[in-house]
Structures are given as C-alpha cells and as structure tokens.
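Example 3.2
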Amino acid sequence: MSFRLRVWIVAAVALGVAIAVLRFERPPIDVTQTGYRGLGMEQPVNPRIRAALWEANQIPAPQPPVQPGSPPATSVYQNVKVLGDLDVATFTRLMVAITEWVAPKEEGCNYCHVGADLASDAVYTKVVSRRMIEMTRHINADWKNHVADTGVTCYTCHRGQPVPAEIWFADPGPKTARGAAGSRAGQNAPAMSIALASLPYDPFSAYLLKPGAIRVQGDTALPAGNPHDLPDTERVYAMMMHLSDGLGVNCTFCHNTRSFFSWDASTPQRTTAYHGIQMVRDLNANYLDPLRPAYPPERLGPLGDAPKANCATCHQGVSKPLFGANMLKDYPELAAAGKPLAAVAPPTPAPVVRGEVVIVYFPVASAALHNEAPAVIAVLVEKLKANPQAKATVSGYHSATGDAAANHELAKNRAMSVQAALVAAGIPADRVVLEKPVAEQANIVGESPEARRVEITVK
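Structure, written as tokens:
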C-alpha cells in the first residue's frame, strides 16, 4: 500500500469519526421525567442549547403606557380599516410596537407606508400587515383552546424580522429524471423542516392547508378497511418529525409509549397540539394563502404560492413560544377583534386663573362642575358683589372633532352650569351673560382639556 493511499485512508477514517462524533450531543444532558418510570416518558434537554434558546426568546420591553380616552383613531387617521375601534393614543402606541417587532430598522414606518402619505395602500406590505393584524386578533379571540390567555402578538413569529424565520411554501422537490426512474416519493432529499429525515419533505400541503386526520393506524388487527398506504404513513411521520423539531420535544411530549394511538393515555399536550393543527389550517386557508395576489413575484414560492405558517413559525424550537412570555397583557388591543376597550377617562384639571380670565375645565362628555370649581366661583362672586355694575361673561368651548352640533350643545350646557352656580351664589341672572367664543378656531381638535373648558371674565 502506497504512502499516499494510507494518508487518504487515515484522513477518511478521521473524517468519518469526526462526523459521527459531531452528530451526537455531548453530555451532560438534563432529563425530565413526565410519566411512570421505565416507560421512556422523558424529555431530554441539552442545557447549552436551552441557554441559546432562552437568549433567542427574550421579549422586547413594552412601549410606555398611554392614557386611553383620546379621539378614535379613525377621526385622526384616514383609511384605517383595522383597529378602528381604538383611540388614537392606543392606536399610535401599537403602531410603534409593530414597527419595532416587524420592520427593518433602516426603514421603520416606511416599510409599510409611503412617506408622509399614511393613508396610501401602494406598498404591498401594508396590505399584508393589515390582514396579519386581523389574523392575530382572530387567534387571540377564537383559538384560546390553543393559545389560552397568553395569546400571540406580531413579535411571536417575526422576532424583529420583516419575514418570520419559519415559513413554508409548496415544495416541488429536487430535479430528477423523468418517469418512474425519477420518482423519489418525496424522500432522500433532506429538508430542515422535517429535521433532515429521509421522509417526504412537504407534509404541510397535505396536513396544514387542507382538512383531514393526520392518522394512518388502523383500529383492527388486519389492514382490511384501512385506506392508508406506506407513502401516507411516511408523510405522517414527516409531520410528526416537524412537530418534535419545531417544539424542541420528543414524541412522548404528547404520546404515551404504552399506546401512541390512545387518546385516553396521552398527555394533555396532545389535545393542545390537536387544536394547534386545526388553528394553523384555519390561518393558512383563510388568511395566509389568499394573500397571494398581494405579494410581488419574488415573495412567492417556487410554485407561485404565498408564504404560510407551520408549527415552528411561532414555536421556533420551544414547546411554548417565547417560553410562555405573555406579551398580550401589554397589548390587550390585540386580544379581541373589533371590540372597543373600556376607555379610562382622561383627568380633568382643576380650575385656573389666567390674568382676568377664570377657566373651569369639565370631564369628557359631561357638563358637571369640577369639585374645586365652587372655590373659584366664590372669588368671582366677591368681585361681582364689589362692583355692582360689572357683569360676568361666560363662554363655553368645545372640541373641533366629532359632531359639531352635539359639541356645541355640550359647550352651551357647560356654560349654563357655571351660570347656574353664579346665580345660586346670589348674582342676578342678568349679570351673567352667555357668550359664544369670539373665534371658532379657538376650539381645539381632540380631547385636550382646553377643548372642554369654560372661560369666565368679569367686565
């Protein structure tokens, strides 16, 4: 044997040993027992991989809270087709959060919008994002049997990226010879989506887009009556490989080793996973796949289909997305589709004196006097009594947003509340004059306290 040949043999053996060693995870490995001893009901965890997953699943700090109760977003922004039930402050806060969760940092708001023209639908990402917000609300409102009260936000899938790391398209497979010679039955073309298994590489088109049971095991000892064949079985195994890999668990996370078939012996997680599969089918069929016309060609799959979700899209290697972190509590506006949140009324400032003018503020949609108004009115009463020729001019201002007639009537009622208080304190009614504001433009847009004030001047 020549020296060169011996070198090649040694190198090949060394490479084979290296590949064999690298295919296995080095100890120590943590093991959590989830069932009776001796049944293999265990979940092994590599602490080094778990540490990296923990780092990758940290959530961003929530946006600073805002005071609800401002005007509806639809009164400030145009073309608001979703989230129109929110007030403008909550709406704006959520848009800032979504930009952080999804948009590239260098583009920011312009990832979905056309510069200053926020109403434009010219950018396809805005059309897609609008539908994704509807989908997120749908998940949180209608799929609690899978997401519970933890729910999801845009960050659950995107993790700061414009396109989630885990999406799928219909897979045509690698190029092969024509005819029977090229038939691979979807095998021997390892795909990351099924953990590089030698199994059909696209179980998703069959099981996560269309309805149907992911089950091939018969309920009799003989195969009579069982319509499933070997390719069906391999496709189911491919789907199970995806589930295990996408959630970072093994088969016993859902199944009992004594009877993989039996639901009665399975863990509760199997029921949760069942609802998750139904949920993903719903999202792909009714939200994601129908978006195909909105995408440019470069965003479609090799067969022209839209990007779709599978289990890894949210889970990304852990059994609970983001290790169960509840971002929804900080963004409850994503919890229920189309249901306005209970608004907290903005505070009503105390009355103030600005030179010769006394200003009394009122609560939103109310003509009730502030509890500190009587003290200020008492000062006015003393001025009026000290100068019997003087009169009090009372002007009520209102918001320039909303129904003009209703706003004008409310401003008048507020002015009359101040007039009634002065008359009740002993000032004759003919000395308290109701007067419209000199300039209508003095009315303030929105629910600023200045938009719900009454000005009193002693002349």
